C-alpha cells in the first residue's frame, strides 16, 4: 500500500508515528518484530515498535556508493554475504570490477563495525516464522532495502513488510515484487531525494541508535 502524493514530515520520529497508523493491524501480535535499517531508519522504527507493542532491533545494510558520487547507490550489501547490484548504474558510471570489489570490501568492514556497535553483545533475534516489519527513513533507488529483503528471506520469516515514510514510485513497485507487503505514507510525483520529505533531516548518530535500542528494550521489560 502506497499513498499517492507528497507529505512533509517534521523529523524521523514524526514520520514513524504517521507510518505506525498504517500498520495498526499488526498491533499486539506476538509474532511481529520491527527492524530498523541504521542509522536513519531506527528513529522511524522506534516509533512503530512502540505503537505496535513489538520488539525493536536493527538490521545492518550498507549502500555501495559510486566513487566520487557516494550518494548514488550502485548496490548494497547485507549480512550473510548478500550483494544486490544496480547493473544499470554500475555500467552507466563506468565502475570497474576492481573498484566495485574495493568499495564492497570497505563497506563490509563498516557493516561488521556497526553490528558490534549497535548490538552491544546482544544476539540477533530469531526471525524464523516471524512477521518482520523492516523500516527505513525513505527509499530513493531502493537498493539497500532490496538487499535487506534478500538477506531476511534467508532467515525464513513468515512474512516481510517493508515500511517507509517516503519513496519513489519506482522503488515501491520494485519492492512490492520482493516483499510480502510495502507500506509507504508518501510517494512524491517528482521524487528527487529522501531528505526533501523532512523539515529536519539531520544525520542520525551511532549513539542515538544505541539509545533508542536500549529505550525500546527497557519498555519491553517494563511491559
UniProtKB/TrEMBL annotation:
<protein>
    <submittedName>
        <fullName>Putative phosphoribosyltransferase</fullName>
    </submittedName>
</protein>
<dbReference type="InterPro" id="IPR000836">
    <property type="entry name" value="PRTase_dom"/>
</dbReference>
<keyword id="KW-0328">Glycosyltransferase</keyword>
<dbReference type="Pfam" id="PF00156">
    <property type="entry name" value="Pribosyltran"/>
</dbReference>
<feature type="domain" description="Phosphoribosyltransferase">
    <location>
        <begin position="22"/>
        <end position="182"/>
    </location>
</feature>
<dbReference type="InterPro" id="IPR029057">
    <property type="entry name" value="PRTase-like"/>
</dbReference>
<keyword id="KW-0808">Transferase</keyword>
<dbReference type="GO" id="GO:0016757">
    <property type="term" value="F:glycosyltransferase activity"/>
</dbReference>
Amino acid at each position: 500500500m502506497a499513498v499517492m502524493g507528497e507529505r512533509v514530515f517534521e523529523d524521523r520520529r514524526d514520520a514513524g508515528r504517521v507510518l505506525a497508523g498504517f500498520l495498526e493491524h499488526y498491533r499486539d501480535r506476538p509474532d511481529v518484530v520491527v527492524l530498523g535499517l541504521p542509522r536513519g531508519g531506527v528513529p522511524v522504527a522506534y516509533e512503530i515498535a512502540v505503537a505496535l507493542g513489538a520488539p525493536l532491533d536493527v538490521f545492518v545494510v550498507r549502500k555501495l556508493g559510486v566513487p566520487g558520487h557516494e550518494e548514488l547507490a550502485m548496490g548494497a550489501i547485507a549480512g550473510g554475504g548478500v550483494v544486490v547490484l544496480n547493473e544499470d548504474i554500475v555500467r552507466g558510471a563506468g565502475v570497474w570490477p576492481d573498484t566495485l570489489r574495493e568499495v564492497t570490501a570497505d563497506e563490509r568492514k563498516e557493516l561488521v563495525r556497526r553490528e558490534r556497535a549497535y548490538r552491544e553483545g546482544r544476539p540477533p533475534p530469531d526471525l524464523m516464522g516471524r512477521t518482520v516489519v523492516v523500516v527505513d527513513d525513505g527509499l530513493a533507488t531502493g537498493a539497500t532495502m532490496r538487499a535487506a529483503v534478500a538477506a531476511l528471506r534467508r532467515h525464513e520469516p513468515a512474512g516481510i513488510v517493508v515500511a517507509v515514510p517516503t519513496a519513489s514510485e519506482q522503488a515501491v513497485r520494485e519492492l512490492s515484487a520482493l516483499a510480502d507487503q510495502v507500506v509507504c505514507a508518501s510517494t512524491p510525483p517528482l521524487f528527487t531525494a529522501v531528505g526533501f520529505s523532512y523539515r529536519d533531516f539531520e544525520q542520525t548518530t551511532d549513539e542515538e541508535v544505541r539509545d533508542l535500542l536500549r529505550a525500546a528494550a527497557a519498555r519491553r521489560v517494563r511491559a
